[in-house]
């Protein structure tokens, strides 16, 4: 997604929507695509586990098992991200278990911004991931497509618990893609891209 940083009225912070990491799936929908919010989006969410609706299994048992492992790693990363945003901290979330340091660096940057702004999230996103393709190379790579629904994932002021005003034209439900790599026996999320299109 190519966009220039934008600001919400009364905010002094700009969120760079050009960064396509796991962290920006949240800011892409709640902040950057909305215009930006210079504050965090983590506090305590009532439920931090994303809803998963998987596609029908592949005909091949091997492919099906592989797809299941990929979706499990992707969903686990989303669950940890949601928990991190709900408290503006990745501590104790298990993000490092299936999210690479490159993706985690951008998440931490967002969490830091959220803490300074005094914002967190409540609720949880609904996801619908499907394995698009798996490339068997020296380092096997998988591409996952998703439809992220943030209807019940709300950015709030940590102190007042009131929702942060955001432009109504932002994408509440948007398409995204993710890249995962097989590191040893574990699939790791390396890149998450929020697309400027609904799904």
TrEMBL record:
The lineage of its organism: Bacteria, Bacillati, Actinomycetota, Actinomycetes, Kitasatosporales. This is Secreted protein/lipoprotein. Residues 38-66 are annotated as: Disordered. Residues 43-66 have a biased composition (Low complexity). Residues 1-34 form the signal peptide. Keywords: Plasmid, Signal. The keyword Signal applies.
């Amino acid at each position: 997604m190519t966009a220039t940083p934008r600001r919400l009225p009364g905010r002094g912070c700009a969120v760079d929507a050009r960064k396509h990491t796991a962290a920006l799936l949240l800011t892409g929908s709640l902040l950057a695509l909305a215009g930006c919010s210079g504050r965090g989006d983590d506090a305590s969410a009532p439920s931090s586990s994303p809803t998963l609706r998987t596609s029908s299994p592949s005909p091949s048992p091997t492919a099906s098992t592989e797809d299941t492992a990929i979706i499990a790693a992707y969903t686990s990363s989303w669950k940890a991200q949601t928990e991190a945003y709900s408290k503006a901290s990745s501590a104790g979330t298990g993000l490092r278990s299936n999210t690479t340091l490159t993706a985690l660096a951008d998440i931490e940057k967002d969490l830091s911004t959220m803490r300074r702004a005094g914002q967190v999230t409540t609720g949880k996103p609904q996801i619908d991931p499907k394995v698009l393709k798996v490339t068997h190379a020296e380092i096997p790579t998988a591409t996952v497509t998703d439809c992220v629904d943030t209807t019940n994932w709300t950015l709030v002021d940590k102190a007042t618990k009131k929702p942060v005003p955001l432009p109504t034209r932002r994408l509440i439900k948007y398409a995204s893609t993710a890249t995962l790599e097989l590191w040893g026996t574990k699939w790791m999320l390396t890149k998450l891209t929020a697309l400027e299109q609904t799904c």
